[in-house]
Amino acid sequence: MIVRDRKAFDLCLADLMDREEVGFDLETDGLEVWNDKRLCGVGLAIGAATYYLPFRHKRFDEHMTLLQTMGDEGHNLPLAYLPELWEALGTVKRLVGHNVKFDLAAAYRDGYRMPEEQECEETLCGARIYFPGSQPSIDLESCVAGVLGVDQSGWKQEFKDYLARLNIKNRYDKAEVEKIAPYCESDCSNTLKIRDAFQAFALETGQEDVYKTEQEVVNILWGMESEGIRVDKDFIARAISETEWARAAVKDCMLEYTDEKEFNPWSNPVLTAVFADNGQKPVGYTGTIRKDGSPSESWADEHLQKVEHPLAKLILNWRALDKMLNTYFYPYSGYEGDMVHAAFKSWGAVTGRLSCEKPNLQQLARGVDWEIPQAPGFDIQVRDMFIAPEGYALVCFDYKQMEMVVWADYLNDPELTAKINAGGVDYHDMVTGLVWKLQPGAPNFKKVRQRAKAVSLGLVFGMGPERMAEGIGCTEAEAKSYRDEYFKAFPTAKRFINQVYRRVEQKGYVFNRFGRRYYLDNDFAYKGVNYLVQGTSADIVKRAMCLTKQGFKEAKSKSRLAAQVHDEFLAYIWLDDFKKDVGIVKQAMETQWLKTELRVDISLAAPDWGHKVPLCGKCFDVIEEGECGCK
Fold first, then answer.
1. How many whole angstroms separate alpha carbon 540 and alpha carbon 183?
2. Helix (H) or strand (E) holding 41
3. What distance, in Å, lies between the first and last C-alpha atoms of the chain?
4. Contact of 397 with 276, CB cutoff 8 Å
5. CA gap 365, 588 in Å, rounded
6. Strands 119-122, 229-231: parallel, antiparallel or unpaired by DSSP?
7. How distant, in Å, are the alpha carbons of 44, 87, 101, 198 from that of 125?
8. Are 67 and 93 in contact (CB under 8 A)?
9. Is 437 left (phi over 0), alpha (psi -120 to 50) or beta?
10. Of 36-45, 56-65, 235-244, which gets the smallest average pLDDT?
């Protein structure tokens, strides 16, 4: 039902009030809702009824003149109705959506604030649990087809063709209300239906607790996204100026190899020609074949790094500077205010690991050692733009060698477990001693430690001797020998890997310490070990997030989680409760879920994320020259 007037609007509000749940979907005039894009319509599924409330649609169809499109009278509800809609929506216990945080962000931009007692439920998380293996797509259309057996591809393709014909992709505000309303209302209704199936599946397969935790985490992530991460606009302005200067200096040197002729450093065909003129053949290929049967050259960074010609280093530096400007500094210099709202996806990876975008905080290097002779003294780091709000400190909590501790738990080796739980020992140092009988300080220790690290990680990631050899820098036969020596020292490692293979062969799936299932074909059984280690780590992180939020709530603290990156929590700690709240996060993260104990390194990000000062894990004072408040 399209809500076009006050009478219909009042009926919709009456139906909405105090509901247990509603299906929720917003249409927008673009994807950058935290920047300059806004909602144009609100879709709701309330029981068996569905509604579409248009607010910012343009009068736009295939037969209108440009002048006619400029008016929207009669097509939209007044924006003054939005506060009433939000008030009614706030009485609903639970909002269910497919990519629900995107819809909440669009609503937030127009004044909606979720009441503390309200919950959001994400069907994408349910889809990740429901579909076996790495489902190619878990978008709503695929989920509806896979769960409900309803093929919507025909009429949805017609709608997509309509948008393409008018060249208004992602500009749903320019779609006719009569076109967009059925699309949005159907999405709201189907979201509730697939949610029911996902819940039933989780219960049937013993993953009810996994599902419940995922939904709790979605609400935590929404809090992180809506409040945002503070950026230093003054630093960004300086960074743009200095990075543009460095990029220009590198470009000047690049052009010396093309007789001052401009070229695109990102283009593979262009670089093939440029390097050919400089006597350099390609060292990598994309894997695709041209029409003439020749392979397509690749000048990706990993291939350029193997090229010894000086132009390769210049291009790598230019690309790094250009990416830093266009991915981080330019976009966020134009944002309103000084808060960036990164989008965290708890459903992005099969294992359950969190991913992140806009910006992707997980891709930010801890510290780039710039080597740019053309720009002496250049030392701009992206992490330096993230700072604490006034009254808070930015504190980093990083699990120590998390994947290795989880791997050791699955090995169930008593000696290994005892050494880990005793604390104070580097995992790879320990393996070097137990397998190859070398201790730190011994001749050749660093080289052998690198071997130990490569073998451990290789086993976790399901690598065979060939790939393991690449990581170690040895022959395939030597890698196989090292792996056998590892198995001799830790026979439970080989036993565990074999158990994973047998389980996949017999059942078609494995499940981690928390019951999360991973479905695998026999040909991909080697991925099972990685799924278990990565997945258990992911579920520990998520439970720690829940415990942290609970701890802050019970303490009535103003502190909050700001971001989750790999095995690291970034928290804004309220200065008045600094030590108490740091202790809350540490206790949550070090909760013992396994036989092997996880520990956390704590550091103060001062003045920004790029500059960390270690904190004592007991008294939480800054450690200066080895001294803290404990001594």
1. 38
2. strand 39-46
3. 70
4. no
5. 26
6. unpaired
7. 20, 27, 12, 9
8. no
9. left
10. 56-65
Per DSSP, 68 falls in state G
Residues 6+ apart with CB under 8 A from 143: 98, 123, 127, 194
Longest dimension (CA), the chain: 84
Listing from the earlier edge strand, what are the strands of the sheet with 49-54?
A: 49-54, 39-46, 21-28, 94-97, 119-122
State the Cα–Cα distance between residues 597 and 610, nearest whole angstrom.
Answer: 28
Q: Which two tokens stand for residue 566?
A: 């790999």
Q: Which two tokens stand for residue 278?
A: 């400089």
Report pLDDT for 365.
Answer: 79
What number of other Cβ atoms are within 10 A of residue 101's Cβ? 24
Q: What sign does the CA torsion over 341, 347, 353, 355 have?
A: negative
323: exposed, middle or buried (C-beta count within 10 Å: 0-12, 13-18, 19+)?
Answer: middle
Strands 21-28 and 560-565 turn out to be: unpaired
CA 57 to CA 515: how far, in whole Å?
46
pLDDT surpassing 60 at residue 470: yes
Query: pLDDT tens digits, residue range 156-189?
Result: 788 888 888 888 877 888 888 998 999 999 999 9
Query: Beta-carbon neighbour count of residue 158 at 10 Å?
Result: 11
Q: Residue 603: in which H helix or E strand, if any?
A: strand 600-605
Question: 620 and 604 in contact (C-beta within 8 Å)?
Answer: no
> CB-side exposure of 88: number of CA atoms within 13 Å?
16
Q: Dihedral sign, CA of 466, 301, 566, 577?
A: positive
Q: Encode pLDDT of 199-247 as tens digits.
A: 999 999 999 999 999 999 999 999 999 999 999 999 999 999 999 999 9
Distance of CA 37 to the CA centre of its chain: 22
Tell me if the bond preceding 295 is cis, omega within 30° of 0: no
The encoded tokens of residue 131 equal 């579909």
Which residues is 600 bridged to in the sheet? Answer: 399
